[in-house]
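Bumping with the actual sequence this time:
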Amino acid sequence: MPFTTPLLTRRRFIQAGMCTALATALHGQQIIGANSRVRLALIGCGSRGRGLIQQFIKLPGVELVAICDADTAHMHQLAAQLSEKDIKVDLVQDYRKVYDRSDIDAVVIATPNYWHALHAIQAMEAGKHVYVEKPVTFTLWEGLQLEAAEMKYGKVISAGYQNRSDKGPQAGIQYVQQGNLGQVKKVRSLCFRNRNSIGKIDHPLAMPSTLDHNLWLGPVHDHTIMRPKLHYDWHWDYRTGNGDLGNQGVHEIDMVCWLLGEPELPTQVKAFGNRFAWNDAGDTPNMLSVWFQMGGADVILETNDLKLAPDRNAPGHRMGTRVGIIAECENGILKGGRGGMMAVENDGRTVIRKFPGDGGAPHQSKFIEAVRNNDPSMVGSRIRDAHKSASLAHLGDISYRMGDLASNTEVLQGVGDNEDLRDILSDQQKQLAAWGINDPQYYMGKTLDIDPRRNALKTPGVDPALTGPNYRKGFELKPLI
């Protein structure tokens, strides 16, 4: 049976809101004053966590109290960096001990994707405010659970979609929403990266002696890892990651939703792609295209991690944009993303107006101010929007994973007369030929039928493990709705 989950109705919202004061009292959390310090803990000290916490410790009135990671090597590396700034913190390997502490007001979650929703909900249940990295969920099921947790526990939660705080996209998207370019007809979400193969080994990877494997796995079932590197490369294993559609691409998907006015999920989604050339331990596609209609516009999500050739970087771009969005409107085009956007004529070149960006610099400070004021509306990225963006990435991945192998010709037949998708296939055929792949086989994804009002799949035969929940014993997430 396909998984379904109920709507968050207004009645449920009111009922959950009535629990807020009680939840706060039960957890002994004091209201933080507008000028008070905010005491933070970091959960996840890998590369993203180390970079993210540097932004937080720059903010006035923020005190980093503790850092936490299942791998003590990660913690010691970060602790050494903090020590150079005369910042001393507690090192805690078991995240549950962080949640038990009364001297921590908020947590910053930068763990692997499969931990995000579980950590965020447990932290709010423990009375902590939450900043959680993208994607905010690992499955469709977790999205509404996050929304329900925000309402039930009355805590501030912000998603790590920093484009929402970048003045470039803010101005560019507002320019389009004010009608300056007319109606939006098409939107492209682009993620062109130059990634390398993660390799493959002929024996299971030995876990580092510094790692608590049970805490690293958490909700994920134990599995054999045949890649040479444990950390970061979990992104390219569907058991722990979401590929680049849910890694970098979800930032651009979020801008698409934002531009279109936060519409409901589409009623159908379809995808095609494959993991070409590398023959490694990864199973997420390095070329993936997803298409649907949403908010009155045709939308295509395109990710491409493969170089133009083994010795040539830059897989290409659309209208000068490699990572960002392109919105084709009646009277012009908006293109760009983090760091800046511009409006151009329909020729794609003649500039109408530029919107310089700042990379989303205020994003973390918005969260801190929201915590001080106990006002979720002050954050840069609300969880109700963030989980929708994550859900679109999940839907694209699910369509792909349920697909069947097809030749380039069969995929062309599958996309019909959609010229944009045909252009993608044509460009990819040339790119793959440079890798010696002259007759590429794609996975032609299954058409997914979606009930947007229930945030659920209507398509029969979907493996429940693809939509959730499927947690390992001892790390389950109790349903909130």
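The tokens above came from a reply further down the thread. Residues 103 and 330 are 54 Å apart (CA to CA).
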